[in-house]
Amino acid sequence: MVVRDAVEADLPAVKAVYDAEVRGGTATFDTTPPPLSAWRERLASPHHLLVATDGADGAGGSGGSGGSDGSVLGYASSTGYRPRAAYDATREVSVYLAADARGRGVGRALYDVLLGRLRDDGVHTVLAVVALPNPASDALHRAVGFEEVGVLPEVGHKHGRWIDTAFYALRLT
Ligand SMILES: CC(C)(COP(=O)(O)OP(=O)(O)OC[C@H]1O[C@@H](n2cnc3c(N)ncnc32)[C@H](O)[C@@H]1OP(=O)(O)O)[C@@H](O)C(=O)NCCC(=O)NCCS
Fold this sequence. Notes:
The structure is a single chain. The protein is built from four helices and seven strands; from the N terminus they run βααβββαβαββ. Strand 6 and strand 7 (161-171) form a beta hairpin. 27% of the residues lie in helices and 32% in strands. The site of coenzyme A has 23 residues, from strand 4, helix 3, strand 5 and helix 4.
């Protein structure tokens, strides 16, 4: 497995990984897949967009399902938390894997690189927002050092039910 910066050719596979969760899961509160242009904007932003692939290098892949050389297993990204200036040293992170790439250390590998980048950037606090229940995400965030700091009750409604979100926080510096 390789973790590297995403490039333009990875974006359809990244989008496919995310869109599967938009349509079938509750980890994201998007209910309509964002267009490819939204991913291009994220790639062009100053924030990090990393992919894990199952090959030595090279971009792209076949729709995010893993399996062939160089295909995208999943991605991790950082964004600003809120636009007001006093939040500037805080980032929000997220990670999404293709269904058949889960449970074998890919999420951990992506976060190890991403959190190292954010530490190098001088980021002070990293936040993750986890829609509950999500035992895999809870375990991953705790495994890399986050602690759960609070729950917002019933702030999402998707697939016919109300959903709580938990905030996880990690102090880097
Ligand atoms: C959440 C997700 C990113 C986790 O990534 P992953 O590659 O499956 O996790 P890893 O294999 O790196 O495991 C990391 C830790 O979590 C634990 N873990 C993984 N899946 C688990 C599960 N289903 N239940 C309990 N613990 C689990 C592992 O044992 C490991 O703990 P350890 O380091 O103490 O041994 C992945 O399952 C996923 O993409 N889920 C769908 C999208 C999603 O929920 N994203 C998170 C949005 S907040």
